[in-house]
Amino acid sequence: MASHETYYVPAQSKWPIIASVGLLLTVFGGGSMINGMSSGTGSAAGKWIFFAGALTIAYMMFGWFSSVVKESDQGLYSQQMDRSFRMGMGWFIFSEVMFFAAFFGALFYARTFAGPWLGGDGDKGVANMLWPDFQFAWPLMVNPDATTFPGPRETISPWQLPLFNTIILISSSVTVTFAHHALRADKRGATKAWLGLTVLLGVIFLVLQALEYQHAYHDLGLTLNSGIYGSTFFMLTGFHGAHVTMGTLILAIMLIRITRGHFTPDKHFGFEAASWYWHFVDVVWVGLFVFVYIL
Amino acid sequence: MSAVIDHHHADHAHGPAKGMMRWVLTTNHKDIGTMYLWFSFAMFLLGGSMAMVIRAELFQPGLQLVQPEFFNQMTTTHGLIMVFGAVMPAFVGLANWMIPLMVGAPDMALPRMNNFSFWLLPMAFGLLVSTLFMEGGGPNFGWTFYAPLSTTYAPPSVTFFIFAIHLAGISSIMGAINIIATILNLRAPGMTLMKMPLFVWTWLITAFLLIAVMPVLAGVVTMMLMDIHFGTSFFNAAGGGDPVMFQHIFWFFGHPEVYIMILPAFGAVSQIIPTFSRKPLFGYTSMVYATAAIAFLSFIVWAHHMFTVGIPITGELFFMYATMLIAVPTGVKVFNWVSTMFRGALTFETPMLFAIAFVILFTIGGFSGLMLAIATADFQYHDTYFVVAHFHYVLVPGAIFGIFASAYYWLPKWTGHMYDETLGKTHFWMSFIGMNLAFFPMHFVGLAGMPRRIPDYNIMFANFNMVSSIGAFMFGATQLLFLFIVIKCIKGGPKAAANPWEGAEGLEWTVPSPAPYHTFTTPPEVK
């Protein structure tokens, strides 16, 4: 007993079942909304189920995370427990990497194999018999069936807004690291300042991304409907944007917690996990900038 | 391996709560393991009854019982339920019960998330099964849901199918994270990685596979959702996409997935064969490396499911040779199991019978896999009943016999009673005969060209199909006997000792039977 602290096993908890029901409501409501949208016969019920689910999830997250914070404050978490949390977060981020890998894989496959074959390369083409005049190029401006999928008139230049966004996100990775160093040195004022700046940079990134989408839709004719270029472009940047939104929210919550006096110079895994997530989102962006915008 | 347990510290901080809410709110790995196992068995019976509908329709040529549309829904949901609802949760249930006991941990690393992983499953499968009652019917595009069948031509309920897959995927990822954290972080002092029981090792590698590929599945169904409802063209050549791309991404998930369903069975069998051979496992280290090698290879063989789709010759050759390489580590494993039994003091209790049948019949499934791996030959076999025979030989006497073997092996630990050996052996022999009757003739009709997923067939296949159906009914009915055996064992039976098996080794046999609600609150010392 002396050499091992007891591993904390929480008593019964209502949060997992609330989370499961919340997720079911969300996807069932969301699915009904989407189906209603596509068939044009949507009823209001789907919307309400979706909102009920989303609210349930928000309530669950607040409650579940609060109890974790309380347990941590009570000193129930040992070093060993801390390692479990670290492994959990690390492997979760790995799963996110693989999620993005699926979309990057789709992009690479469409560009390297499917596109050229559709244009008549190699001896595997039967698809090019359907559209004998189709020429493949990347970015793909003219789709095989240009009436169903009107191609984009123009694509987004990487050296304007996207470059600026790259600088913003990379700076935010640096500022969150400064915040971490300040927290470790117990300089709470500096921690708050650097973390606040990080959140601000995240928000600026999101606003600029929204402007870029508006530009794409209204001025460039680059939409979800504009063929494989638009599909991969919006899927990758869209999911990245959703992750930046999540990351910004998480960091904002960390900022609130720091303001309320949570964390100590050597125990602050909540903060660290948030910053790991933020760095991950940043790395994904660098991949996007290179493979979606530049190349 | 010996263990010293400080029983004074096996205190009961909180015992099981009373009533139904015990199961809903629990954080206990044994409760959650039990729920996983029961859920999986319920899904096994549900997916099995769908198989009975399929075999009843195929009993004779011509259309008898169901319409082709409904037949399609049966083949699809049978596959989905068996893969995601029966086999995977059964192994997660075994992991929940046994891994903490095997590594000397007080519970799973993240107990509340563990409960979350479980409770997402009834939600996911409730949603999936509900699609069968929706307008236009449930999923009818095969369990592999190839685009454009699952996009352009799918019933409206496909949206809910997609979300059901998302929920099941989230559950799997959380379960896998929990298992990895438990194995890497909660081992008792002295339990080095290379002292871990093989079941733990195979699960560690399986969990890695799950975290690597379940998100890819989530990605591909999300692309489907976007194609169906939001105008994208990932899988539509008219917009510059490619339906074949769906197959690439799907099988990048799908091939590791088949190892997810078999590696834990390898581990379980590697526990059981040494016990009833009364010899240590032959070649422990090579078993670990072989498992890792199989896991690595599983990532680079996916296109062997797509030989006929039109991929370049270099691709055909690469995926053919890579696939054949899998035979090497798998051969190492089979060799080791046989060598473990060689000159052992063998007895043939029910778990051992299932384990030996596993080794023999899984090997048959492996060999038919090698035949399918030959790209040129696959042009003949593709989409025939030969493929159905192949994967049912690796899944039924592979994964499912592995689960049965584990259940009989550990039932005394779970319930504190011995199961009825005579009934257990009856269950084994009926399953063994039924399963071979059902699936062996499929090799012949497949080689002769009978296509899969079609409710009607040429009259020349009639006799073999009738045999298959009789075998399937026999196998299906026998599983009710298994239900009876398990209930009987829970209700009573001869008391089981802490170690009911003469030759069993490992920490799980050092705690009393039934295992107390909390075990290893203080880690045991492993020498």
From TrEMBL, chain A:
Keywords: Membrane, Translocase, Transmembrane, Transmembrane helix. InterPro entries: Cyt_c/ubiquinol_Oxase_su3, Cyt_c_oxase_su3_dom, Cyt_c_oxidase-like_su3, Cyt_c_oxidase_su3-like_sf, Cyt_c_oxidase_su3_a-hlx. Residues 3-295 form the Heme-copper oxidase subunit III family profile domain. The keyword Transmembrane helix applies. It is a multi-pass membrane protein. Pfam families: COX3. Its EC number is 7.1.1.9. It is found in: Cell membrane; Membrane. The keyword Translocase applies. The chain crosses the membrane at residues 15-36, 48-69, 90-110, 193-211, 231-256, 276-294. SUPFAM superfamilies: Cytochrome c oxidase subunit III-like. Belongs to the cytochrome c oxidase subunit 3 family. This is cytochrome-c oxidase. It comes from Pseudomonas neustonica.
TrEMBL record, chain B:
This is Cytochrome c oxidase subunit 1. Residues 17-527 form the Cytochrome oxidase subunit I profile domain. It comes from Pseudomonas neustonica. Belongs to the heme-copper respiratory oxidase family. Keywords: Cell membrane, Copper, Electron transport, Heme, Iron, Membrane, Metal-binding, Oxidoreductase, Respiratory chain, Translocase, Transmembrane, Transmembrane helix, Transport. Pfam families: COX1. It catalyses: 4 Fe(II)-[cytochrome c] + O2 + 8 H(+)(in) = 4 Fe(III)-[cytochrome c] + 2 H2O + 4 H(+)(out). It is a multi-pass membrane protein.
